[in-house]
Amino acid sequence: NAGVTQTPKFRVLKTGQSMTLLCAQDMNHEYMYWYRQDPGMGLRLIHYSVGEGTTAKGEVPDGYNVSRLKKQNFLLGLESAAPSQTSVYFCASSYEAGSYTDTQYFGPGTRLTVL
Amino acid sequence: DQQVKQNSPSLSVQEGRISILNCDYTNSMFDYFLWYKKYPAEGPTFLISISSIKDKNEDGRFTVFLNKSAKHLSLHIVPSQPGDSAVYFCAASESNNFNKFYFGSGTKLNVKP
Questions:
Q1: Do B2 and A41 touch (CB under 8 A)?
Q2: Strand A87-94 relative to strand A105-106: parallel, antiparallel, unpaired?
Q3: What is the pLDDT of residue B97?
Q4: Taking CB atoms and an 8 Å cutoff, what residues of chain B touch A106?
Q5: Residue B4 and residue A107: Cβ atoms within 8 Å?
Q6: With a cut of 70, which residues of chain B have pLDDT below it?
Q7: Is the pLDDT of residue A98 over 60?
Q8: What CA–CA distance (Å, rounded) separates B79 from B19?
Q9: Residue B66 bridge partners (DSSP)
Q10: Pick from B9, B99, B103: which is nearest to A43 by CB?
Q11: Measured between alpha carbons, how far is A44 from B35 in angstroms, rounded to an integer?
Q12: Which of these, A13, A20, A98, B7, is most buried using a 10 Å CB contact count?
């Protein structure tokens, strides 16, 4: 099993450009998440999905859109990139989110720089 | 305002000694807590968790302690090994909203041989 994979690993964008980050998991997990990590701060939840065809806003959703057309994939889109979106983006998945024994499995991250 | 705080950005410990990483939270509704470990260029990996019905949970060299009245948890690593050198994040959630985890900013642990 590859676990959670993210594409691309690195990207540099100019202000105003758009891009899509792809997250894929092969663990048949229902729940998927997108986080961003900035220096001196913890991971902050951008959007999440509780199943195929569903999405919901997290803590910092502005400037991002997501889609979950297939259970194994969760896409994060930036329509018009801004320098404030320079960050490391992590995708995660979990089997369920209603159990004290559940945990999230993370991808390796995408480092995005917006100039 | 961060609801989960790790006030020590870094910690250096000698191999074989105890490492103690601390985490404070402000939301009294949090009742599930986790620690993650992160190596450079990798995603965080789950280490250990604790629910609020317990005040201690052990897994090998790793023990998490929870003090609900102080809104404080700590991770003890005994004995510390050089391979434990990593960034450690604590995270917290409410049991009625497991979808949302709130993470601390991390503590970078360096275990010296």
A1: yes
A2: antiparallel
A3: 73
A4: 36, 43-45
A5: no
A6: 98
A7: no
A8: 8
A9: B73
A10: B103
A11: 15
A12: A13
